[in-house]
Amino acid sequence: MGKQKFLGLDSLSFQDFDENSELIPLMTPEDEELINNETLPESLPILPLRNTVLFPGVVIPITAGRDTSIKLINDANKGGKVVGVVAQKDEAVENPSANDIYKAGTVARILKVLKMPDGNTTVIIQGKKRFEIKKVIQEKPYLTATISDLPEVKPETQNEEFSAIIDSIKDLSLDIIKESPNIPSEASFAIKNIESNSFLVNFVSSNMNLKVDEKQKLLVINDLKERALETLKFMNLEYQKLELKNDIQSKVQSDMNQQQREYFLHQQMKTIQEELGGGVSSGEEIEEMKARAKKKKWDKKVKAHFDKELSKMQRMNPQVAEYSIQRNYLDLFLDLPWNEFTQDKFDLKRAMKILDRDHFGLDDVKKRIIEYLAVLKLRNDMKSPILCLYGPPGVGKTSLGKSIAEALGREYVRISLGGLRDESEIRGHRKTYIGAMPGRIIQSLKKAQTSNPVFVLDEIDKLSTGNQGDPSSAMLEVLDPEQNNEFYDNFLEMGYDLSKVMFVATANSLNTIQPALRDRMEIINVTGYTIEEKVEIAKRHLLPKQLKEHGLDSSNLKIGKPQLEKIVEGYTRESGVRGLEKQIAKMVRYAAKNIAMDEDYNVKVSNEDVVEILGSPKLERDKYENNNVAGVVTGLAWTRVGGDILFIESILSKGKGNLSITGNLGKVMKESATIAMEYIKSNADKFEINPEVFEKYNVHIHVPEGATPKDGPSAGVTMLTSLVSLFTQRKVKKSIAMTGEITLRGKVLPVGGIKEKILAAKRARIKEILLCEDNKRDIDEIKPEYLKGLTFHYVKDMSDVLDIAITNQKVKNAKKL
Ligand SMILES: Nc1ncnc2c1ncn2[C@@H]1O[C@H](COP(=O)(O)OP(=O)(O)OP(=O)(O)O)[C@@H](O)[C@H]1O
User: Where is the Lon N-terminal domain (predicted)?
Assistant: First the structure.
C-alpha cells in the first residue's frame, strides 16, 4: 500500500473541503445502499486515469494536467459534478481514444477542485458505482460515452465462507499496516471502522500496491465473494513480500549499526588517546625499520607482506598494546635471516680432520658423515639430508652435530625436543595471543643468523604427544624435504624455507620415534665404547677439556692410562662417557683446589690418589660372578641406555608345581619363562628329570636389578638354561653369557642390539657368548678389536643351547630331586 494513495490525503488537509462534502469514506452498509440506489445517467464524460483505478466508495485525489481533462473537470464541476472514471491501458498514451481505455470504470463525484501553484489541477473524487461503456459517442473536446450499470452480485448475509474471507482481509490488512512503516497507523483505525463488506474490499484493493491492470481485473469482478477472495490472494502476496523486505532491511540495519558502533568507538578511543598525550606513531622507529628492510633479501611475497604490516603499524597509536605486538612482529622479520647463506666448505679432508680432532674412534660414523658431505657436494642443490644419530647417552651424538657444522663451515644451533608436548613450541602461537612467540625452529634460526645452519634436534625420540596438538606432526613438516620449503609458523604467519637447513637429529632409541619421522631420516648408529676406547677418549679429550675449563693445563695434573682404566672400571657404568667426564672433572677439581690453597699434591696421580679423590670404587654389579649355584645364568640385555648384563635366578621350593616370576619384568619376558618351562616338561626324559618333580615343587624365577625395566624376548635362552640347570642341579658353563629368543618348537631366533650387548659382556669380563646362528652377521660387522678375548657359540635349537651351556658337573650341595 503506498502512502500517497492511502485515502488520497497526503498533500491535503481537511480544511480544503466543504463541511458537507462527502469526503469521509463510506463505512456503513447504509452508505453503500445509498450509492447503489443512485440512478446512473445514460451518458457521461469519461475521465481517463493514467496510473490508478477508482473503486466505488473510495476517495482519491487526482492531478489533471492534460487540457482535455482540465476542461472536462471544469465543465463537470460547474454541472452535475459527476464523471465516469476509467483507467488507461497504457499510461504513456497522451490523448487516449476509445480503444486506449478499459471498458469498465467507476462513476465519480467531484468533491473538490484545487488549482495548484504549478498550474495543474488537483481534483478530489469519490467513487460511486461501477459502469460499463456501451459506446463512445464523442471524442472531442473530451471522451463521452453511453454507459450501463455493472451490478454487484452479493453473497447471502449468512455466507460463512464470505464472512471468513472478510475477516481474513481485515486481519491481514491490519498486519500489513503494522509491518509497513510507510502507512500511517490511522489506517488501521479506518479498517476497523468500515462496516460495509463491499467497501472494505474496495478500500483495500484501491490502497494495495498493485499494477493498474491487476486493479482493473479486481474492479470488473461482479461477484463480491470472488472479488474478495482475489483481493485476499493479492494481500497474501503483498504480506510475504513485505516480510521478506523487512527481513532484509533488519539485516542491513544491524550491519550498519555494528559498523557505526565500531566507528564511534574508534573515534572515542582516538580522542582519549590524544587526551592522554599520545601522538602519531613514532616516525623514527618506522624509518629505521624501513632502512633495515632495504637490506633484507626478501622475495616479493615477503616484502609485500612486510610493507603491508608496516603501514598497519604506521597507523597505530604507539601507546596501545597492539603497537608493541606489531613492532615485535616486524622486528622478527628483520631479525630473521632470509636467503642468507654461508658458503659450504666442501673440503672433505679438512672435514675429516675436524671430526677426528673432536672425537676419538667412531670410525664408521665419521665415514658415513663424510659420505654424506660428499653427496651434498656433488649434488650441490643445497638440499640437505636429515641425519639421525642414535645410540646410548653420552656417546657424542650431540657433539658430533657440532663438529659437522664446523666441518661444513655452517652455523650451529640446537634445540632439545625431550618432553616437548605442545605443538606450538615448534610452530609458535598466533600473534593475537598475549605473550605470543614464534616456535623454537624460527627462534633458533633467528639465533643462527643464516638460513642454512646445521640444526641439531636433540632427543627426537622423546617428543611426546600431549593434549595441545601433536608436536611430531609439526616435526614431520620440518623434516620433510617436500614440505619444509614452506614451513608455516603461526606467529610468523608466513611460510619459511627450511630446505637449506641441515638437520641432525639424535635419539637414544629408535622404537619411540614416530615411524613416519623415522622414515624421513638417514639413521646412523653410534654404539657405546669399550674400556680401551674410553681410556683413550678420557686421555685425548675429556681430561684436556676439563683442565681447560678449570683454568689449568696438562702440567697441573697427569692421569696415566692405568689410573684412567681404574676410573672407567671402578666408577662408571655406562655406554657413553658422560659419567667418566664427571669423574675426571672431580679429579681436576682436586688439583685446582690444591693449587688454589697452595698445598702439595701429586701432579701424576696414583691408584691410591684415585681412591682418595673419588672414594672407594662403587660396587661393580654387572660383573660376572660364578657358576656355583644351580639356576643362575648370565643373560645379555639391551636397554635404552646401552647394553647390560642380567642374571636370571631360579629356585625350587616344595609345592604343587606353580611357576612364579618376579623382578621388574615385562610381559614378553614372562612369556619366555612359560615357553622354557613347557619345553623342559616335554623333554624331561632327555634331561633325565623325574616328571614328578614338576608337580611336587614350585618354581620361582627372579631377575634382580629391578630398577631398569627389561623386556623383550631375548632372555628366552637364558631362562631355559636357568631352569634346566635348576631341575638337573648341574653347573652352567663358566663365564658364559647368552641372548636369544626361544619358540615352543625348540628353535632359537635372532635378537637385536648385539653390538651393545657385546660391549656390556666385555665390561663384565664375560669370555664366551652364546647367540643364535642368524646373529653371526651382526658379529661380522663389529670391529675385530671389540671382539678380542671373546668366544662365540652360534646355535639353532634349544638343545644346542643346553649342549653348550649346561655342564655335566653337579653344583655343590646339589638338591636331590
Ligand atoms: N668419541 C668421543 N670423542 C671425544 N669426546 C667424546 C666422544 N664421545 C663423547 N664425547 C664427549 O662426551 C660428552 C657427551 O657427549 P654428547 O653430549 O654428545 O652425548 P650424546 O650422545 O649426545 O648424549 P645424549 O644422548 O644424552 O644427548 C661430550 O662432552 C662429548 O664431547
Answer: 44-239
